[in-house]
Amino acid sequence: MINVQKLLKSANATQESFEGEFKFADLPLKGSVKAEGKLMKVKDGIAVLFDEIKASQAGDCVRCNKKLNIPLKIEAGQWIFYDKRPAVEDDANEFLRINMENKSIDLREPLRQEILLHLQEFPNCNPICKEFVASDVDTGVKALSGLKDLKGLHLSDE
Fold this sequence. Notes:
The chain is an alpha+beta fold. Strand 3 and strand 4 form a beta hairpin. The radius of gyration is 23 Å and the shape is elongated.
């Protein structure tokens, strides 16, 4: 939680830097997530500008099952925490609110969203494994698809 009381009382475009370390037990990450950026007072609340997010995805190669630790490349992102319901909104569940009781914001949800957008769906350990998996994904090849070619084959108990 970051206290934004002072920033809420400031003029629009006032900035404040932040950095922090976060843990997400429900995401396939190795270690903690490090984030740094700026908070900026805007007309509707507080804008969060992530300059850098460092995280590592833990997983296994989808082809050879080798253990992997993949550094995630997460580009700058921007989120807005509103002090009240915005005048124009797409979905009431899609905006972040400032906790007006203690004048704070929680960066965990926007960080979670940024990480989810950058996780590798099919992690690979090397170019050969990547090429193998990519060709299957692109062409729709299934592991047992060759069985259709065996329809004329008859097996006997002899």
